[in-house]
Amino acid sequence: MAEHKAERIRLLSLVDIFEPLSEQEIEQLNDQLPDVHLQPGEMFYAPQDHTEKLFILQKGKIRVFRMTPDGREFTLAVVEAGTVFGEMALTAQQLEGAYAQAMESSEVSTMAREDLERLVLEKPEVGLQIMHVLSERLRRQEIRLEDANTKDVHARLAGIIALLVESEGVRTITGYRIPAHHTHERLGTMIGANRVAVTRAFGLLQDEGVVELRRRLIHVTDIEALRNSAAYGDAREDGRS
After folding, report:
1. pTM of the prediction?
2. Which of 128, 11, 90, 117 is closest to 58 using CA atoms?
3. What is the mean pLDDT of residues 206-235?
4. I need a labelling partner for 231 at 20 to 30 A (CA). Which of 8, 33, 48, 173 fits?
5. Sheet harboring 43-45: ordered strands across?
6. Cβ count within 10 A of residue 221
């Protein structure tokens, strides 16, 4: 029991918005937050949920997505461990009409609106951290929305791979490795394209020597060429999705 509490406190101390808190404040916070363990693929937020809560992802990875009118999933965000998300007017976050699903075994704590308001009043630095985290997340979403409206599948795929490198890429001798396995179908939900179109676009990036697939993981061998592909696309890709 003591070991579990110590581990939970350690994980909370790694959450980006809680960086300004002291060890004692983290311990007090730990006693107030209920948590839940999620299995891979488990859904824990759906459009019918309307309570204002801030979700704190301590371990694992969460996908937030909506259903398109034609019944396809469109991924709004992939949330990594050590950060927050949720449906709460105070933090300008909107999960209305969205689903949240665990992509892997995950640990999530919840914080009610009144508790977050009290924390921000007591520790304004937490409010500043929230602003920073959400502004960066908004920047990424704006890039993806602009790409979805103006670029072909080849450029959109290059763009989302570049964002994945930025958010979770691991430096290697030959470039960067994205440590999580992203299927073509999953990548398609991130850029608004079907699996066949993603497979075709990924093949183009491979032919250009920009990316490689090794043991089901994406390796980026030329990050500048990838960014150029994201910016300008490729005339060989017809853009059908």
Report:
1. 0.71
2. 11
3. 86
4. 173
5. 43-45, 99-102, 61-67, 73-80
6. 17
